[in-house]
Amino acid sequence: MNSRVITKENKKEIANRIKQIRLQRNFDINEFAAILYVSPFSIKQWEEGKRIPNLEKIKLIAFIFKTTPEWLLYGE
User: Where in this chain does the record put each HTH cro/C1-type domain (predicted)?
Assistant: First the structure.
């Protein structure tokens, strides 16, 4: 995986991709949080671009939802 810096713009793009995954699968925030073993508050923070998931969670999201960490982080 790349070692690029995460910018403010990247955070918003990551937020949008995480929300896109959740909405495409028709999960509410509580269901999505349960699948990822985090609080609904964490999901809200991620989707608002206030925080980003740690690398372990990025990899888990990618694995569960059949995408790549690179796509989640950089849109690639």
Answer: 18-72
Close Cβ partners of 16 (under 8 Å, ≥ 6 residues apart): none
- Residues 46 and 40: their CA atoms lie apart, in Å, by 10
pTM: 0.88
The class (CATH top level) of 8-74 is mainly alpha
Q: Residues with Cβ < 8 Å from 15, sequence gap 6 or more?
A: 46, 47, 48, 49, 52
Helices 40-47 and 8-24 sit at what angle, rounded to 10 degrees?
Answer: 120
**pLDDT of amino acid 9:** 83
